[in-house]
Amino acid sequence: MTAADFKSEFLRTFVERGAYYDCSAPEDLDALFLKERVTAYIGFDCTASSMHIGNLVQLMTLRRMQQAGHRPILLMGGGTTKLGDPSGKDEVRKLLTPEQIDANKQSMVAGISHLLKFGEGESDAIMIDNAEWLDKLEYIPFLRGIGRHFSVNRMLTMESVKIRLEREQALSFLEFNYMVCQAYDFVELYKRYGCRLQSCGSDQWGNVVSGIDLGRRVASAQLFGLSTPLITTSSGAKMGKSVSGAVWLNADMRSPYDYWQFWRNTEDGDVGRFLRLFTDMPLDEIARLEKLEGNERNEAKKVLATEATSIVHGRAAANEAAETARRTFEEGAFAEGLPTFEIPRDKLAEGILVANLAQMAGLSSSSGEARRLIQGGGLRVNDAAVSDVKASVSLSNLTGEGVIKLSVGRKKHILVKPI
To answer: What angle do CA 262, 300, 329 make, to 5 degrees?
Structure first.
């Protein structure tokens, strides 16, 4: 589908931004957007204390929907997290306690709530937890009222189930019920809030279609699904992964500076696409930036880094990260805005291997990796290359600023601070 295929502002923008993958009934949904203020939801399970970049396409979908005058629902999966979503998983999800799930939910919402405007207005966002209805279900009545509408034969053909079975990996009966509960969420949100649309990543499409079908069967309602593509980089890597793991959105799990650096390291071929997906910049300005070549392409990457960081961490934090990077790279300064790793002073006084400190500070995934960095000349202490894998640092290595600067390459830095 192209933007010209749609008349509604939201769907045209959705396509122009590169977020469109599939839709259950494109013409009908387009007509609905033209006719009324649409309520739509996206669900997030509470499996970690922060959302990550893999969730950001969906969060931006809710943001653009609200910008177009529609009403987004942020559905937190306090109930479905207790089941475990088999989609894209090779093994049974670790069960979390209700207390862990609630703590994760609170932290996740705190990290992204500023992306949307919540309130009592007609297009203000709503945040709700599906535990509100799932935790109250009576099992046998639920099976009789809802479960009878699901064919096990069809459920076995769902991609999330089929892959696990083909790989001969366990699929618990608990997980098998996930799609039933997600479909029920859609119907419940329709009944409570008039929600007609669920957006999702392409890997969740089977669950969304199940909800559309359930809405038709039990509520005689036409519900809609809208999906976004799986985002990969130009080199084919899955979006949202870095050497150190997931790129978290909460500042306490990934500093605004490191978040800025993630975007600054975008591959050349992805700059325009990521500007469209992950920023609010005008499309004509994005078109200008993606045409830049050579060293000017680095300037476009800096714009991407600053604009994407401002969406998640705010304009002030984004500008500070950009300035920290400029001072660090262009002036060789220590730059106070660099991420800080605190270590007990007495532990540093005893002396600690640089390789071990690099692992502790998060610059390497293991001390073995840190040793390999040293052997390759890629690890520096206070801007001086370390050549001995047995080298250690202590309080004597503190700079005038009272810290030790550890660096990997030109773009990864951290300040070690004794406390």
So the answer is: 60
Give pLDDT, residue 371.
86
Predicted local distance difference test score (pLDDT) of residue 243: 46
What per-residue confidence (pLDDT) applies to 392? Answer: 87
Partner residues linked to 42 by β-bridges:
74
What does the block give as tokens for 110?
Answer: 């705190």
Query: Rounded to an integer, what distance in angstroms lies between the CA atom of residue 416 and that of residue 112?
Result: 28
SS (H, E, C) the chain: CCHHHCCCHHHHHHHHCCCCCEECCHHHHHHHHHHCCCEEEEEEECCCCCCEHHHHHHHHHHHHHHHCCCEEEEEEECCHHHCCCCCCCCCCCCCCCHHHHHHHHHHHHHHHHHHCCECCCCCCEEEEECHHHHCCCCHHHHHHHCHHHCCHHHHCCCHHHHHHHHCCCCCCHHHHCHHHHHHHHHHHHHHHHCCCEEEEEHHHHHHHHHHHHHHHHHHCCCCEEEEECCCECCCCCECCEECCEECECCCCCCCHHHHHHHHHCCCHHHHHHHHHHHCCCCHHHHHHHCCCCCCHHHHHHHHHHHHHHHHHHCHHHHHHHHHHHHHHHHHCCCCCCCCEEEECHHHHHCCEEHHHHHHHCCCCCCHHHHHHHHHCCCEEECCEECCCCCCEECHHHCCCCCCEEEEECCCEEEEEEEC
Domains and CATH numbers, the chain: 3-228 (3.40.50.620), 255-331 (1.10.240.10), 340-418 (3.10.290.10)
What pTM value is reported for the model? Answer: 0.79
Cβ contacts of 320 within 8 Å, gap of 6 or more:
256, 257, 337
For tokens 């500042």, the residue is: 251
Residue 128, token pair as written in the block: 């709700």
pLDDT attached to residue 28: 98
Which residue in the block uniquely carries the two structure tokens 């007990």? 344
pLDDT at 240: 64
* Residue found by looking up tokens 């992950």 in the block: 278
Q: What is the mean pLDDT of each run of 10 residues along the chain (419 residues)?
A: 94 97 97 98 96 95 97 97 72 80 97 95 96 93 90 82 75 84 96 97 91 96 96 80 72 91 91 97 96 90 96 96 80 63 84 88 83 85 82 80 79 81
